[in-house]
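ugh ok fine here u go
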Amino acid sequence: MRRVLVVLALLVGCCLTSPAVAAMAVGKAGPGQYAREDGRAGWTTHEVKLAVRGVARYFDPSGGVAKSVDVARCESRFNPRDTLGKYHGVFALSHEEFADSWAKWRQVWRRWGLVRSVWNPRSNIAVALHRARTYGWGGWSCS
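structure:
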């Protein structure tokens, strides 16, 4: 039964998993939207991976989902609070890279309800994968 539900969810653009629910629809939710079911704050590694996969399916950067997951693993080990010098979050973006992308595509991010913070996992993932689609993976040391 669970397999049937998962396949059905993927067909309609949603990925239902526990403990998170991913809304892959575009619009207010945007790709990679998660709401924790256990009531705790923060994101688990599993939830970050699900968000990376969902947003990568939407933006379809070079190398697709597999490349996106590999880069996120290498850059932060899926830790949204990771930092290395001036690079932060799941995809190790600088504040400057994030701000530049935010300014260029502000209306898209707002429509999806994203937060203007490199530390927000969903925002970090969406901005990074949009940058990867637009400019390629050259800006990441793990690409």
